[in-house]
C-alpha cells in the first residue's frame, strides 16, 4: 500500500492505494501483463503495451468505481505521475467503465463502454447513464447512450 497526492483542482487530497503491476521491456516497448491498482472506492485492472516515451500505447482497462470523484482523482494522479500534471474534475456517482487507452500518456484517447448510477456532473444530477464514451483532448463524447432519472429517459445517438 502507498499513498498518492492528488489535486482535485480545489485542494490536495490523499488516496491510499495498493496494487500489483507486472511488466517486461525491450529496447522499444514496455509490455504490461494483467495488473491492478485499487483504492478504497476504485478498482482498475489493465494490461497492454506502450513504446518508450508512451507515444504508441494500447492499454485495455476496466474500472469499477464506488465513487467517481475518488476514481477521477486516482486517474489524475496516475496520469500526473506517468506523463503530465492533470487535474480531476467535479463528478459524482458510481459505476463501471471498460475501455482502451491509445496514443500518448500526455495526450491519450480513451474509448469504451460506461455505466453509472447517481451520476453528477456540471452541477446536475443526471441519474443512471449508459453509453459509449470517447475522451480526447480533455473532452468527453457520449454516443449510443441513455440517461434515466425517475420516469424520464433521454436517448443519445
Structure classification: mainly beta
Which residue ranges are poorly predicted, with pLDDT under 50 across at least 5 consecutive positions? Answer: 1-11
Report helical residue fraction: under 10%
User: How many DSSP helices?
Assistant: 1
Residue-averaged pLDDT: 87
State Rg. 16 Å
Fraction of residues in β-strands: over 45%
Main pleated-sheet profile: 11 strands, antiparallel
Shape: globular
The string of secondary-structure elements, in order, is EEEEEEHEEEEE
Number of DSSP strand runs = 11
General description of the model:
- There is one protein chain.
- This protein has one helix and eleven strands, in the order ββββββαβββββ.
- With 157 residues, the protein is mainly β.
- A hairpin with a 4-residue loop joins strand 1 and strand 2.
- The N and C termini lie far apart (42 Å).
- The N terminus is likely disordered.
In a few lines, what is going on in this structure?
This protein has about 160 residues and is mainly beta. The protein is about 10% helix and about 65% strand.
Name the features.
single chain; 157 residues; mainly beta; eleven-stranded antiparallel sheet; 11 strands; disordered N terminus
Strand and helix layout:
Layout: E1 2-7, E2 12-20, E3 23-25, E4 29-38, E5 42-51, E6 57-65, H1 68-82, E7 91-104, E8 107-121, E9 124-136, E10 139-149, E11 152-156
Antiparallel strand pairs: 1-2, 2-4, 3-4, 4-5, 5-6, 6-7, 7-8, 8-9, 9-10, 10-11
